[in-house]
What we know:
The chain folds into 2 domains: about 15-115, no CATH class; about 145-280, no CATH class. About 15% of the residues lie in helices and about 30% in strands. The protein has 6 helices and 17 strands. The protein has helices at about 30-40, 70-75, 105-110, 195-200, 215-225, 260-265; strands at about 45, 55-60, 60-65, 80-85, 90, 100, 115, 145-150, 150-155, 160, 170-175, 180-185, 205-210, 225-230, 235-240, 250-255, 275-280. The chain has a 5-stranded antiparallel β-sheet with strand order 11-8-17-14-15. It has a 5-stranded antiparallel β-sheet with strand order 9-10-12-13-16, covered by helices on one side. A hairpin with a 2-residue loop joins β14 and β15. It is elongated.
Amino acid sequence: MSEFIKPEHECPFDPKHYQCDCFIAPVGSFSWALIQLKLRKRVARSVWGGKGMYLAITPRVNDLTVEEGSAYAVDGVAVGTQYDYLTHIDLRNEHGNFVPWQPTQEDMMACDWKFFEDKVKPEPDTKPEPEVKQEPELKSKPYTVVFDITPVRDEKTRWGALHVDEKPPIMIENNLELANIGGATWTISDHYNDPDEKKEHGDQFSVNLIPEIRDTPLFQDLRKRKLIITVNGETYNLGNCLRWSKIDFTNWFTYRGEDAEKIGSLLKQSDKTFRFYCNWYE
């Protein structure tokens, strides 16, 4: 190793020498930028714009050895050669790569040097996108029933309210010429004693209409339509009502599925009044 590049021939650097109450170099000057590099700060020029370019100092590394297969060895430097990797300034270019840098005359005379700051990337939104429910295509005016219900628990397997209860559902409006709501309930499969009924019915939401419409065209029309219920601004698509293989309850329209379960969760909130906006669409 030559005497010239030994550490004792490099100007010693102590950061304390650059800390005082006086101005050492004008802020923004090339001299100021060199001091910041010595203090292990990153600097850039304003004219480099938003390309992500900056300078950083690479400190000296001593007592390295050329190893077999390294770039130096491939270039012909003898394996085992000892060397020091000297302090220098690197430029991070606009492509994100680093290369040794030397200033131009323009760089040395510029007064637009500044600290480089990484642009803070916004945190990705980890919340799942809300499901957009497809509204049914309106082929005709829907059948509409609006009622208030204050759920109570009936036994241990059913929640909701019936017209015979102390707090029955209250009809607000409808375009079916109905007199009342017979009931709206959430029933779990354990409500049924017969194993076949328990298996077929499962957990379900049901709504009953008064008066009797079973033998009317309206009854069959409602069974073919999709029921959309809105409660507190939330919309629930219950789809078509179920058809049973053994029995068919008079005037009861029954639904299962994810949105039916959400309606069931509302009906489990005893003594809280909800307004149900029911629309049957083609």
